[in-house]
Amino acid sequence: MARNAPARVRAGLGRRPRPHDRGTRRVVPGLSGPAQRLVAAGEAALGEPPGALAAAVAGWRAEAHRRGRPALGPPCPCCEADHGRPLIERMLHALPRRAARELRAVVAPLDEAYRASRVRRGDEFWFLDGPQGW
Questions:
Q1: Which domain holds residue 99?
Q2: For 12-45, how does the pLDDT look when each residue is reduced to its tens digit (9 = 90+)?
Q3: Does residue 33 lie within any of the structural domains?
Q4: Which region ranges are annotated with the description Disordered (predicted)?
């Protein structure tokens, strides 16, 4: 009976995953595994690509801790770049309570850092306390 060469057999099997091989899916640091699964399902339900919430949280973290922001007047919300906060807000409303609570615990310190850097003592800008509640 004819036998295939081992190299030919291995070539048809494909490659085993290696430790440095990672998918494109990003996770939100600070969320549990079940919450990450619900986030992935929520992203799919909202039509967002996988890892969109993780990218939004990373962008919001960078914006919240950015230095050199003007503090003299209210910035124009329509002129500023989108740093992911609208997607975070949509996901907070789309997720079940427990997962939304975990996400809110991750985002709340970032919101406070953003407010502290944007709002001077006694000057509340109208868009910070808007209907979103952030």
A1: 26-68+76-118
A2: 776 666 666 665 568 899 999 999 999 999 999 9
A3: yes
A4: 1-33
